[in-house]
Automatic annotation (TrEMBL):
The lineage of its organism: Eukaryota, Metazoa, Chordata, Craniata, Vertebrata. Residues 51-233 form the VWFD domain. This is MUC5A protein. SUPFAM superfamilies: FnI-like domain, Serine protease inhibitors. Disulfide bonds join 640-689, 651-705, 655-707. It comes from Struthio camelus australis.
Length: 712
């Protein structure tokens, strides 16, 4: 995921994102645009040039690094081989032949590709009086779509294509035009042959088999002869390369198209000069003007590979025709992956377009190796022999893959349907058992009914109803009460004044009704805590709360006025009060909690009931008041001792004492009280003596203390 995990020790890890250097623009010697490719780690990218070598005509070469030259010999030569073998015997040969024997001009006859133990030959042969593309795989003819040993073979427009995905190689051949495309990352600086070195430098392009670099690529091309056949020209290479002289009064009108506005959109992408030179060279040495077509075709092909469409054949005055089978149409810029009825396993790489024969709009090619176009691919025939489409039974012609559909006959109806009732009209509906067949059903269309004109007498209401099974409505008159142009049925309540209730009642006379009104009797009863209150404009009043109501557990109810406090009988710790918020009377309950009594701080005889009768309280005493205290000690008496500590009690604490002047007595008054026992008891403890005898010892135990008056 483009990160590195660094172990820092002590069981600690650190994640470091991969840092990518800025992508640098590069310039390619062959003028092809550089392509963006991933680094080995797959996280960063860099630009690299494309290794593309192409040739056409008799023949003209453009090497991997963009050098143009012409080579006129009819032997088999090495186009591409590896300097250091890395990829399983991969190499490409070209086999030339004399296409004009009088002047010694040669043209490509076939392209031969070697990979591993496989030999693939792309050529054109005369079959049934017509020159056709032929592909040999290990000397056996194969069809486009063939795949074996890592090699894929296909057709794209007029081109035969061999692709080797493992090494990224693509080789194409169309008779007079060939091209070899290799990835720079695998073959850069490691190719030699007539296509050059793919080093992105023109200085080392003309390399001999010995490794020596010379300046003349036509001279270099002679050295790449294959085999020991000395009967073909060019073995050994001549010291001086000569070419046939041009024809007298040479005219090449087709070549001018290369520099015209027809190819102008491509001029800035691919320089036209090499193709123009090759075209003039061919046109001035071969009498057949069609030889010039290869230069135009090559230039248009290179432009199409870069996404630039050049529709040029129509500008050649029928000199460079492209004939297509009767059921296909020529397109100068067709898709590189045209759709077929059988999905192709070969996807041609690239974003460009190609010329060739394609199916008309709305039709699809049956397969990649077929010239038959169909409007329907019979895709259902894979699963079943027949199928239904738009209520037609369809079958597929397995020879042409065309679909033939016929409409099946519907079963005869058992009983015809006639729509005689008013308002009904015949409608065709699908049969649930067979949705492709219909039957006639009668459907109600109320717009077909005649207008209702019946009128009722005064005091009667016109009622429109539709009877079951009928479409058009019928009119009846019924007695009703008419009030303010509104009809009310018998039993209906009629709006009236606030203190009366009016209803529509049946009259003793037939077909008549009358309005009957009765005064409204108000219910003035209100529950406790509520008061009956009348409102202006209303006949009857309502019960309005005026106090709080408290309901106890025995279902007794007590009414409280605002601010009143009430205790339920027998419960002095709970009281209720009533509060008013925005005319809402809310009872509030208050529950009193009693403080706890510490028995050490209060004598049980001093405990009493609080003034409100709720809690048991102990009168408060001053700090350190007179009270009984407990202590434990071991008693020693005449050599005898208690076997365990004995609890003893004593009185201690402050009592009232004062000395103050009394105006009434005109003298000082004194009061003295002291903390002393007011209740005691005698208790006995058995002491153990040193001689082993026991002694019963009697001592005084203070039961209660209090402040006692004494003389000052």
């Amino acid at each position: 995921n483009c990160t590195e995990l660094l172990c820092e020790g002590d069981n600690k890890e650190k994640v470091i994102p991969t840092q990518c250097s800025p992508v640098k623009e590069i310039t390619c010697a062959n003028r092809y645009p550089p392509i963006l490719v991933p680094d080995e780690n797959g996280c960063c990218y860099h630009y690299e040039c494309q290794c593309v070598c192409s040739g056409w005509g008799d023949p003209h070469y453009i090497t991997f690094d963009g050098i143009y030259y012409t080579f006129l010999q009819n032997c088999t030569y090495v186009l591409v081989k590896q300097i250091v073998p890395k990829y399983d015997n991969f190499r490409v040969y070209i086999d030339n032949y004399y296409c004009d024997s009088e002047d010694g001009l040669s043209c490509p006859k076939s392209i031969i590709i070697f990979y591993k133990s496989t030999n693939v030959t792309l050529t054109r042969e005369l079959m049934n009086g017509v020159m056709k593309n032929v592909i040999y795989f290990n000397k056996k003819i194969v069809q486009p779509g063939f795949k074996k040993d890592g090699i894929s073979i296909s057709m794209l427009g007029i081109n035969m294509i061999v692709e080797i995905p493992e090494i990224g190689a693509t080789i194409t051949f169309s008779g007079l035009i060939f091209s070899v495309k290799l990835p720079f990352s695998k073959f850069g600086n490691n190719t030699e042959g007539q296509c050059g070195t793919c080093s992105n430098s023109k200085s080392d392009e003309c390399r001999l088999p010995s490794g020596k670099i010379i300046s003349s690529c036509p001279q270099m091309a002679h050295h790449w002869h294959v085999g020991n056949d000395t009967s073909c020209s060019g073995v050994p290479p001549p010291p001086i390369i000569t070419t046939p002289p041009p024809l007298p009064q040479c005219k090449t009108p087709l070549c001018k198209l290369i520099k015209s506005k027809v190819f102008e959109p491509c001029h800035d992408v691919i320089p036209p000069e090499p193709f123009f030179k090759g075209c003039v060279f061919d046109g001035c040495r071969v009498p057949n003007a069609s030889i010039q077509c290869s230069s135009l075709e090559m230039y248009a092909t290179e432009c199409a590979a870069r996404g630039i469409c050049i529709d040029w054949r129509g500008k050649t005055n029928s000199t460079c025709p492209y004939n297509c089978p009767a059921n296909t149409v020529y397109k100068a810029c067709g898709p590189i992956n045209p759709a077929t009825c059988e999905p192709s396993s070969v996807e041609h790489s690239g974003y460009g377009v190609t010329e060739g024969c394609f199916c008309p709009e709305g039709q699809t090619l049956i397969s990649e190796d077929s010239n038959i176009c169909v409007s329907d691919c019979c895709k259902y025939s894979v699963f079943r022999e027949k199928w239904m489409k738009d209520c037609q039974e369809c079958v597929c012609d397995k020879r042409t893959l065309k679909v033939h559909c016929t409409r099946p006959k519907c079963p005869p109806l058992t009983k015809p349907e006639y729509c005689d009732e008013p308002g009904y009209m015949p409608v065709q509906v699908q049969i649930s058992e067979d949705p492709c067949c219909t039957r006639t059903e009668c459907y109600c269309n109320i717009s077909q009914c005649s207008e209702v004109t019946h009128k009722c007498s005064v005091g009667q209401e016109t009622v429109i109803t539709t009877q079951p099974g009928k479409c058009c409505p019928s009119v009846t008159c019924r007695p009703s009460c008419a009030v303010n142009d509104t009809f009310y049925s018998p039993g209906a309540v009629i709006p009236s004044g606030p203190c009366e209730k009016c209803t529509c009642s049946n009259s003793s006379s037939p077909h008549r009704a009358f309005v009957k009104c009765e005064p409204v009797i108000c219910d003035t009863y209100c529950p406790a805590g509520y008061k009956y209150t009348k409102k202006p404009g209303q006949c009857c009043g309502t019960c309005k709360a005026v106090a709080c109501t408290v309901t106890l557990g025995d279902n007794t109810t007590h009414v409280l006025k605002v601010g009143e406090v009430w205790n339920p009988p027998g419960n002095n710790c709970t009281f209720y009060t009533c509060e008013n918020y925005d005319d809402q009377f809310i009872p509030v309950i208050v529950q009193k909690s009693c403080p706890s009594i510490n028995p050490d701080d209060c004598d049980p005889d001093d405990i009493r009931i609080s003034d409100d009768g709720c809690c048991r309280v102990c009168p408060t005493q001053p700090l350190k008041s007179c009270k009984k205290h407990n202590t434990t000690t071991v008693i020693h008496y005449n050599g005898c001792v208690s076997p365990a500590p004995v609890e003893l009690t004593y009185c201690e604490g402050s009592c009232d004492a004062y000395s103050r002047y009394s105006p009434e007595a005109n003298m000082m008054e004194h009061k003295c009280t002291c903390c002393q026992d007011i209740k005691t008891s005698q208790r006995t403890v058995t002491l153990t003596c040193s001689d082993g005898t026991h002694l019963n010892y009697l001592y005084t135990y203070v039961e209660k203390c209090s402040c006692v008056n004494t003389e000052c």
